[in-house]
Amino acid sequence: MTNRTLNEMLVNLFNNVLDMEGRAVITGDFQDITNNDMHILEAVGIGEPKMMSAIATRLSVTVSTLTINMKGLEKKGYLVRERSEEDKRVVLVTLTEKGRKAFFHHRDFHKKMIKALMKDLDEEQKKVLYKCLNNLNQFLQQDY
Q: In angstroms, rounded to a whole number, what is the distance separating the alpha carbons of residues 108 and 111?
């Protein structure tokens, strides 16, 4: 396998994941949101309410950029934003029932994708795959 072949495979994988995720996740009940919106819902999560600043950090965006998307998702009924009782400067975000359904729908796609990736790999191969993906992730997090 040449570096050029590996590069083409990575580019194709990236494009295919985005395309397939969009087709698999933005269906039926979730036609009114984008793939990007799904990732915002994922960052909010299903646990305790999250601060806008924590969500923005996780998504590597500014709070003002996130606020624009949050307004749309709130208007469509996917989440609720409320000021903290302890500190009125803090905005907390929680998924609604509709948002939770979208969250689980998106998570199921990712579970299926990981299952397909790990299929037929023994433990040693899984360790090598993890190491390769970790190396790639570290490279992608660098300031280039």
A: 5
Residue 85 CA: distances (Å) to CA of 38, 48, 54, 88, 91: 28, 15, 18, 6, 10
Residues 6+ apart with CB under 8 A from 74: 80, 81
**Rounded to an integer, what distance in angstroms lies between the CA atom of residue 17 and that of residue 77?**
27
Closest alpha carbon to 30 in 100, 92, 114, 135: 100
pTM of the model: 0.82
Instruction: State mean pLDDT over 99-127.
Output: 94
Interval 34-60: pLDDT, tens: 989 999 999 999 999 999 999 999 999
Pick from 80, 94, 104, 86: which is nearest to 48 by CA?
A: 94
Contact between 93 and 49 (Cβ < 8 Å): yes
Lateral strand order in the sheet of 91-95: 50-51, 91-95, 79-83
